[in-house]
Amino acid sequence: MTPFQLQSVSEAADDIRRLISEQDLAGASARLTPLSVPEVVELVDRLSIEDAAIVYRLLAKARALDVFEALSPGTRGDLVGALRRAEVTSLFAEIDPDDRVWLLDELPASVAPQLLRGLTRQERDLTAGMLGYPHHSVGRRMSPEFVTTHPQLTVRETFARIRAALDSAETVYTLPVTDARRVVGIVSLRDLMSADEEALIVDVMSDPHVAEVTEDAEVVARRTTDYGLLALPVVDGEQRLVGILTIDDAARILKQEESEDAARQGGVEPLRRSYLSTPIRRLVRSRVVWLLVLAVGATLTVQVLDAFEATLAQMTVLALFVPLLIGTGGNTGNQAATTVTRSLALGEIVPRDVRKVLSREIRVGLCLGLLLGTLGFAIAGLVYEWHIGLVVGLTLVAVCTVAASIGGIMPLAARAIKVDPAVFSNPFITTFVDATGLIIYFLIARAVLGI
């Protein structure tokens, strides 16, 4: 949305809150009428869950379904908790199977059987089948509702299949070509429209990209967007077609994963809903655990300072440079970690590239250290004494090199042991580099100053 649209939605949210507090539901309904579906979604994200449930009930049924499908998974889960059981059962039956699985992943496990019982047998089987795949796998994010064609069918016959499935298929813009349920090709709607109606599909189709149903959803989503695919066929262990991942679902997966990574790199747990609609207690809960962990880790820095207390007592000027050195080290490590974590997410590097990454980060850190160290040497030497400048300069060279190396390899180590690299990112690296940097600083000071 543009800044103007966001401001308009913000004003609408304020109006809706006021009208609901005044119990003027007719006025609230009228205020919602001119808003588009994306604007209603943004508005719901700005309201408390109680007000959001009221707004949802004021929407026409078809529009309410469009809004619900566009909400984030966390908001959906909270909204379901605020609606009546009859409303939830009806809504659950209306949405697509892949959206049902997204929703069930956000709800308590005890709720799933109740909601599944309200589905038809066919819909229940489709949804239950997807729930059987591992968490975070593409099998839980694909759509089992698709249109296929056969290599020996004509373009005319394929169009007949498309028309028959228009109301139920997730997409008709890309069709898997199957033979005995195995994917042998792919054909786009553009290719079909430009071909002769009597042409065989085997002469129109192209080689397919496919994903294994147990592959990580983020990896498959990234591949889908990298290849610019409108839909990617998903196959089981015997290469039989079981679903498709569309480009909009891929974008949704990547948005959620990137939000989680950004949060964890900052040392907080991801929020299930937008910031403005998240209760204060949940914001506190998302941050306090990490703060406690990092506070415990920061005791390393205190212990290092205590161990070198005698050194500081003999040369108190050294204390003045402690914030500069540990801040520079932490920032250098964070830069390296962020770069490597992003490269991991994009598939540019893998854990076995650790030697190459370490080699590059050592050189990058050394270059940064030489630049900053020269500047630190000159400034500290001019303001204080040249031997103090030498200590600061040498420490910056060493700290930048060590920090860049640690920041570069920690995300790779995390991926190797099947842990989210973002978890090992900025906060932990900062804590570790702070303690390491101080040890380096005081050892260099002792060697240069002879204390």
From TrEMBL:
* Record SUPFAM superfamilies: CBS-domain pair, MgtE membrane domain-like, MgtE N-terminal domain-like
| Ranges where the CBS domain occurs | 142-204, 205-260
- Xref: InterPro entries: CBS_dom, CBS_dom_sf, Mg_transptr_MgtE_intracell_dom, MgtE_N_sf, MgtE_transporter, SLC41_membr_dom, SLC41_membr_dom_sf
Q: What does this protein do?
A: Acts as a magnesium transporter.
**Assembly, per entry:** Homodimer.
Q: Record's Pfam families?
A: CBS, MgtE, MgtE_N
Q: How does it sit in the membrane?
A: Multi-pass membrane protein
Q: Where in the cell is it found?
A: Cell membrane; Membrane
Query: Any stretches that span the bilayer, and where are they?
Result: 288-305, 311-328, 362-384, 390-414, 426-449
What does the UniProt keyword field contain? CBS domain, Cell membrane, Magnesium, Membrane, Metal-binding, Transmembrane, Transmembrane helix, Transport
Family, per the entry? Belongs to the SLC41A transporter family.
Q: What is this protein called?
A: Magnesium transporter MgtE
